[in-house]
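Backbone shape codes:
***
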Amino acid sequence: MSIESDIVRIGEQEKALRFERFDLGAAWSVGQHIHGVAAAAGHILSIDVQINGMQAFFAAMPGARPDFEHWIRRKRNIALRFLRSSYGVGLELAQQKTTLEEKWGLPTADYASHGGSVPILVEGVGCIGAVTVSGLPQRDDHNLVIESLAVHRGLDPQRLRHP
């Protein structure tokens, strides 16, 4: 897929993955789903679900490195600042041939526009947190989060994920 078609697909994902409500039970369910998929596939990654400024779920798969948690923080900062997936922001920057520092003055020590963090958007409320994965190639990190949110939302994850 081209960057343009990826950006369109991410817009579709973000529109479809809005929730009527999302609480600690939902955070646990989403985190557990990602953990189950990762364990079955033998993925080495870390998973973080934050809502209302608190960590509601965290897991590091066997073999995960401490650096994954720093990537999670940096990707989550993008999702929470722009209310968009970190992958979508990164693709738009690539399309515009610019960087976080050039466009917004954001330091890469605190922000990473790489795939893997998706904001949790609740209708009538707004952004209440983010689901973030780190450890796989960025497209795979992004797809894993999208799949889990789609399953929780009762949607077909294959219809929403990137090929």
